[in-house]
Amino acid sequence: MTSAEKFLSMLIALVAFAAVIAVILFLARTFGERNGGRGTAWAFMAPVVLLLSVGLVFPALMTVYQSFLDARGDNFVGLANYATIFTSPDQLTVLRNTVLWVVLTPFVSTAIGLIYALLVNGARLEAPAKALIFLPMAISFVGAAIIWKFVYEFRPLQGNVQQIGLVNQIIVWLGGEPVQLLIESPLNTVLLIVILIWIQAGFAMTVLSAAIKAIPDEIIEAARLDGVGVVQMFRFVTLPTIRPAVVVVLTTIGIATLKIFDIVQVMTGGQFNTSVIANEFYSQTFRSDNQGLGAALAVLLFLLVIPIVAYNVRHLRSSEAR
Amino acid sequence: MSTTTPPVSAGTSPKAPAIPAGTLARKKLSKPWASLAAIVLAVLWTIPTFGLLVSSFRPERAIKTTGWWTFFSDPQVTLANYEKVLASEGANALFPYFVNSFIIVIPAVVIPMTLATLASYAIAWIDFKGRDVLFVAIFALQIVPIQVTLIPLLTLFVDLGIAGEFASMWLAHSTFALPLAIFLLHNFMREIPRELIEAARVDGAGHVKILFSVLLPLLAPALAAFGIFQFLWVWNDLLVGLVFGGSENRPITVALSNLAGTRGTAWHLLSAGAFVSIIVPLVVFLSLQRYFVKGLLAGGLKG
């Protein structure tokens, strides 16, 4: 297909979609007003209910079912796939890595974001200084991974081979030997985590900076008059006030981290003991043709998201009630 | 109540003279350190991207044998990498995938935005049976990770005969976006004063008319917030493109990911290609920045 043909097919699809919407609106206008608009309500809800039940609810239930089947989906194997996740050495490494990701990423990026927000708060070049940190948010994980490939690349020390990765060049400049950064485990996982921290710190910084600016001046002023120092000000005034925002940031990054896939896929493909649940799901399902195990990993991912969301919702409720 | 608190009605009062000398001194002392720390962080954060930008303009041989920092002692500039990457034909051409990304993203933003507007209107302003149950169900669906749906969805697309077609990605992206879109737009619709809707109804306006002439103009910021969020989400997506995209119509992210995985990495193509793929979301992001943060915050639970 040429580019023009692609655009044409897209236009046709959009026109078809517009036609569907026009029919819905026509039906709603002609028949919908009876019974206080119930007809309109169902005409408006129908496409959404259809898409969500066929495209989300039904597949999710199917996946739960498939997680109890064997690799090819032929025989019922009970909890065997889940047992594999929690016993096979490969899968245990996957779990270990996922824990490492989910523990390190939210806390480190939130801490860096918070520190940076405090440092530039009220500074002269605040807006551009913030933009520099925030820009990685707009870059795709794939783009970010490629950027960091240029940072982590390793070249063996021989003849006049030069390093092209920045980290190894710095090691060499300092008189050390270049390290196979993406091959040595668990160092490689930590270095991949750095990439996500690099991306998420900007998000944390933006949200927390807004929260810091929302603290009423009177509170700051009163604390200052009481002779509170910088550190105490942070501990007893700033942090308690922005606590709800910190929780939102931590949980949001936590959920995003749990589902991290792109960075691992592009940097190592999950090799060298760097795989995580979302990546292992992809490898097992589409590379190793082990659909049962893949499905079980997807279900596990879902189960792990729930407590984080529950904590977030409960915390939001309690801070609203206050 | 502290008696030392000055009346706040004075508005923007100048710095209170009562600040103890110790605090003042400490504040003054910490200032240069704060600036220095901020600069160090900002430089650290920018260097990786800067390195890629410099690399993308260096000749292939230079990229593969020396680091980008040698550019400053031995500057060699070329546009050859961009020419190769942006060529519409040839083994290394990334341009077709760049086009694919646009083809995928436009309907994947328009479709959920339209459907969610209709649904959120119904939930917010029409009293119908099962409304609350539906809303809670849709809200809960936000947290379902897309991984949970991929295998059965792929089977479904194969049965429908659209596996590997653009349509499969439009449908998948639209479906995944709906819960968040409805949640976001519903919250916004509820903030519109009830009197406005009731006045229009008294005037004899039907729901369709109210939606288009009363609500839609007010909804623009919410639609923008969702639109930009969904645009970045779809443009930057790898997983959906990898699973549902055919070899001809995969998005730029998938093409780049494949390129990065090949043996004897094509560094010169990667650097230029990555930059081309970054520019579009960057432009969208910079021009609509203020809506973006709002969308991001609301999308925290998206699966």
UniProtKB/TrEMBL annotation, chain A:
InterPro entries: MetI-like (IPR000515), MetI-like_sf (IPR035906), UgpAE/MalFG_permease (IPR050809)
UniProt keyword terms in alphabetical order: Cell membrane, Membrane, Transmembrane, Transmembrane helix, Transport
Keyword Transmembrane helix included in the entry's annotation: yes
Localization annotation: Cell membrane
GO biological processes: transmembrane transport
ABC transmembrane type-1 domain segment(s): 95-312
Transmembrane segments: 6-28, 40-62, 99-119, 131-151, 190-212, 233-258, 293-313
SUPFAM superfamilies xrefs: MetI-like (SSF161098)
UniProt-listed CDD domains: TM_PBP2
Entry GO CC: plasma membrane
Membrane topology: Multi-pass membrane protein
Signal peptide range in chain numbering: none
PANTHER family per the UniProt record, alphabetical: BLL4140 PROTEIN, DIACETYLCHITOBIOSE UPTAKE SYSTEM PERMEASE PROTEIN DASB
Family: Belongs to the binding-protein-dependent transport system permease family.
Protein name: Alpha-glucoside transport system permease protein
From TrEMBL, chain B:
Keyword Cell membrane attached: yes
GO BP terms: transmembrane transport
Keywords in alphabetical order: Cell membrane, Membrane, Transmembrane, Transmembrane helix, Transport
Family membership noted in the UniProt record: Belongs to the binding-protein-dependent transport system permease family.
Chief location of this protein within or outside the cell: membrane
CDD domains assigned to the protein according to its UniProt record, in alphabetical order: TM_PBP2
Pfam families linked: BPD_transp_1 (PF00528)
Segments passing through the bilayer: 33-54, 102-126, 133-158, 170-189, 210-235, 266-288
Organism of derivation: Kineococcus xinjiangensis
ABC transmembrane type-1 domain residues: 98-288
GO cellular component entries: plasma membrane
Intracellular or extracellular location(s): Cell membrane
InterPro entries on file: MetI-like, MetI-like_sf
Lipid bilayer topology: Multi-pass membrane protein
Taxonomic lineage: Bacteria, Bacillati, Actinomycetota, Actinomycetes, Kineosporiales
Protein name per the record: Alpha-glucoside transport system permease protein
